[in-house]
Every structure is written in structure tokens, then in C-alpha cells.
Specification:
The chain is α+β, with helices and mostly antiparallel strands. It contains 4 helices and 5 strands, in the order ββαβααββα.
Amino acid sequence: MRVSHLSPFGVEVSGLDDLSAASPEQIAEMVAAMQSDAGCGVLVVRGQQLSAEAHERALFRFAPHFGAPIRYDRWPGQSKGVEGRPHLSLLGNYRARVRDDLGVKCAPGETIGEYKPARDAIEEWHTDGSFLALPKSAICLYAPGWLADA
């Protein structure tokens, strides 16, 4: 595993095949780099092919540093969660590449996340929970495919 500066800010991890199987020492190294001046709180781990189960498992690897993952409780108008994975939700206009992509019952080509561009109000779209009385300490976004193609 190699951690390097990601310009203009953030750090990038390469050479890690499966984030969900990272050792506590590797997680600690990633968190320290992310929290450094160069990291600015941004960590990018490329090349991951995570199932919904593995994604959720990876979240729990970071719990000693950020606290346990929060269950996703859908509010009216929010994207649906991932069946059987209470800490995951869908976001954006991702189109399924294969049947039951990301652990969601779907057909190839089907849009499985909800994309709602903000119109007049900032409360239309949040992932950070900044509007909560106790905001979230970290957010994990998984973007399959498009980052690998960039």
C-alpha cells in the first residue's frame, strides 16, 4: 500500500486491493495521512471493486477513528437504501452495469440512485448531515466505474 499527495489537496492510496480487508495499521496510516495538512480531510482509495457487503465492512474498519457507522434511515424523498445493508444508501444517477448491481435489485441500464439537483433550497441534498444537531464526523462515497475510467 502506498499513500501519496493528491493535487490540489487530499491523499490517495494505491496498491490496496480490498479496502474491506485492510489491517488496523493500514487504516491508521490512511487516517493519519488524510488528517495531515496535505490530506485536508480527503482520502481517495482507487481500484476498489466492492460488493455492498464489502463496502459496509470497510466502513466498520474506520470506526475506531470516526465512530461506528450510522444507520441510514430514509426520509421521504431521499434515495433508497441498500437491502440488507443498513448503513448504505444510494446517491446520484448511477446506472446499473449488471443485474443486481451494488446489491440492489435492478436490471442493467436501470438508474438505481436518485439524483435531484438543488433548485432553491440547500436542504434538498445533503450527504454530510451538516444540518443535524450532531453532524457526521466522516462521509464515505463509493463511485464505481467512473473514477477508474478517469
